[in-house]
Amino acid sequence: METLNISLGVVVTLVVVALLFDFMNGFHDAANSIATIVSTRVLKPQHAVLWAASFNFLAYFLFHLKVAATIGKGTIDPSIVDHYVIFGALIGAIAWNIITWYYGIPSSSSHALVGGLVGAAVAKAGFGSLIASGVLKIIAFIFVAPLLGFFIGGLLMVAVSWICRNMAPRKVDKHFRRFQLISAAAYSLGHGGNDAQKTVGIIWMILIAAGLSTTESEIPGWVVLACYTAMGLGTMFGGWRIVKTMGNRITKLNQARGFCANSGGAVTLFLASAFGIPVSTTHTISGAIAGVGTTRGARHVRWGVAGGIVWAWILTIPCSALMAAAAWYVGRLVL
């Protein structure tokens, strides 16, 4: 990546905007981690966000930075990255997150960021600036991640139903209230381990372009710590509009179903993070919830709601890309 003449003030501004996006990511995607334990009344909302935020941050100590490397070097040509591209990408992603949060739509902050990078890069250097293999892999997982969550969540629900077939429903609920805390913690770990790293990759790109990071093989520790902290703080504030959609409108959950949905989502996120694939936590948990719901019969899933969510998934990258392209042009005038 070419070192550019970027003032320290611009670098600081971009880092702050990146951390604002990370905060918005946690705020917007809090529903992914807490929707099931709130809707099943395992924890009060205030306690649920603290629980999720704690495990978002703990992911800092557990996950390698493979996802950050994919964002930093695997989506757009590093040689075209400058402060205008980063500015456009972040503003496009933040704008889309605000719009979808306002309307209670569970869209993907991850794909908003990818769309932002794509839009700003194309605005500057055309489609040849995209790394096709990286972008196509991320697009493929728009479908793969929710399908994995769907099948793993559904299989877990079938297994739980068989194991608990002779137990009284009240006893099952009592046990799974505790198990849900564990599954929600695991999902929050996966959320922190995958999502916070995307902003790590963005800030890393900024520092390399400005010549403030001398190597592309190591990411400064303060960057990682700051991103995980911002994500955790965002989660603590919680996006309640989206919690209602995720926890109640796709299918009705009880303690056992909530456990299976969170566990299916967590397994999917751990697998994706291990291979450095930036996936959508929103897509993953939506698929897992739908998979759990179908074990009771397809009629127990509100497919109209699910279909609306899928349309949001499809539109996220192109819409955030268009916003980012516009922001890139504005950035050229103001930065």
UniProtKB/TrEMBL annotation:
Keywords: Membrane, Transmembrane, Transmembrane helix, Transport. It is a multi-pass membrane protein. GO terms for cellular component: membrane. The chain crosses the membrane at residues 6-27, 48-72, 84-105, 112-132, 138-164, 199-215, 221-243, 264-290, 310-330. GO terms for biological process: phosphate ion transmembrane transport. InterPro entries: Phos_transporter. It is found in: Membrane. One of its GO terms (molecular function) is phosphate transmembrane transporter activity. Its main location: membrane. Pfam families: PHO4. PANTHER family: PHOSPHATE TRANSPORTER. This is PiT family inorganic phosphate transporter. The lineage of its organism: Bacteria, Pseudomonadati, Pseudomonadota, Betaproteobacteria, Rhodocyclales.
